[in-house]
């Protein structure tokens, strides 16, 4: 059963990567690096871990997901579309004037988006506030947020980290997409926050480190949540920038991508081959 679950999640992640290609075709550009490094984890959240209902996106007892690194908006759009929050045809409007799919997620335009994000460093603060509110309301819901490793330089993250630990918010899970690169180059060269896990432990969080592009490790970590009673959980996910785009993997120059039609065709072909491989495993 577990093997089949993992296979299905890998297949779904490949479909979500194809949804990203669809948006790239529509706009001719996008933040491919962080989108593809985090897409396996976001897929597993929506299709394995979180208690959500696309037909009732405002259901009171739903779990919440916030994409703190809002410039990676294509990952959220791709997964929400695959989950059925909106018709996939809307993906073809990405990057267009008046599109519901803005460059950063907009909670007023698209069902399933819990907060308008993109000003880096605020997602963890918002998620902490949501987790506190849900606890006060005695709701069973959980809150999940994904941070970029580059945005850890924003001080608001650490205020939220302290508050979440102080209030013992074990209904909160934060994930750092630690691909090691940001638009200016290596994260450790721009502003070194390693070892990330140790810093959050010192703030009072329970921490695990995983390969964030390995679906087995992702599911194992999600199954263990919360890692400790009375503590917020932090997953330091070691990922590869632009994972799935062979020519761009591990390269800072693919933080943002302006692909040609031929580039999109080649990427789509690779992903379709992956999908056929997963189907052959049945």
Give a brief rundown of this model.
The chain is an alpha/beta fold. Helices cover 43% and strands 12% of the residues. The mean pLDDT is 96.
Report on the structure:
- The protein is an alpha/beta fold and 282 residues long.
- It has a single domain (2-280), classed as Thiamin diphosphate (ThDP)-binding fold, Pyr/PP domains (Rossmann fold), CATH 3.40.50.970.
- The protein is 43% helix and 12% strand.
- It is built from 9 helices and 7 strands; from the N terminus they run H-H-E-H-H-E-H-E-E-E-H-H-E-H-E-H.
- The protein has helices at residues 2-27, 32-49, 73-83, 123-136, 156-166, 187-190, 196-203, 215-223, 261-280, and strands at residues 64-67, 143-148, 172-178, 181-182, 185-186, 206-211, 233-238.
- It has a 5-stranded parallel β-sheet with strand order 1-2-3-7-6, sandwiched between helices.
- Helix 2 runs parallel beside helix 3, helix 2 (32-49) crosses helix 8 and helix 4 runs parallel beside helix 5.
- The radius of gyration is 18 Å and the shape is globular.
- The two termini are 12 Å apart.
- The model has no long low-confidence stretch (mean pLDDT 96).
- It holds the Pfam family Transketolase_N.
- Residues 12-257 form the Transketolase N-terminal domain.
- It comes from Anaerobutyricum hallii.
- This is Transketolase.
- InterPro entries: THDP-binding (IPR029061), Transketolase_N (IPR005474).
């Amino acid at each position: 059963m577990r093997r089949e679950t993992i296979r299905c999640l890998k297949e779904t992640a490949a479909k979500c990567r194809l949804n990203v290609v669809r948006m790239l075709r529509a706009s001719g550009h996008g933040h491919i690096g962080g989108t593809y490094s985090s897409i396996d984890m976001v897929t597993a959240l929506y299709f394995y871990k979180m208690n959500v209902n696309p037909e009732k996106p405002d259901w009171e007892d739903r779990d919440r997901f916030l994409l703190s690194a809002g410039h990676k908006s294509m990952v959220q759009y791709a997964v929400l579309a695959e989950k059925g929050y909106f018709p996939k045809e809307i993906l073809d409007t990405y990057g267009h004037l008046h599109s519901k799919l803005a460059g950063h997620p907009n909670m007023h335009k698209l069902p399933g988006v819990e907060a308008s994000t993109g000003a880096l460093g605020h997602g963890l603060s918002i998620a902490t506030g949501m987790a506190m509110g849900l606890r006060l309301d005695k709701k069973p819901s959980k809150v999940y947020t994904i941070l970029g490793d580059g945005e850890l330089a924003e001080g608001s993250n650490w205020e939220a980290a302290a508050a979440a630990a102080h209030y013992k918010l074990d209904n909160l899970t934060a994930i750092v997409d630690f691909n090691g690169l940001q638009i200016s180059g290596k994260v450790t060269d721009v502003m070194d926050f390693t070892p990330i896990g140790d810093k959050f432990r010192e703030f009072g969080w329970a921490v695990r480190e995983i390969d964030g592009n390995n679906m087995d490790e992702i599911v194992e970590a999600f199954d263990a949540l919360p890692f400790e009673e009375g503590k917020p959980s932090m997953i330091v996910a070691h990922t590869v920038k632009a994972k799935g785009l062979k020519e761009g993997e591990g390269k800072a120059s693919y933080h943002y991508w302006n692909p040609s039609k031929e580039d999109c065709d080649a990427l789509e072909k690779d992903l379709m081959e992956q999908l056929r491989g997963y189907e052959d495993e049945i």
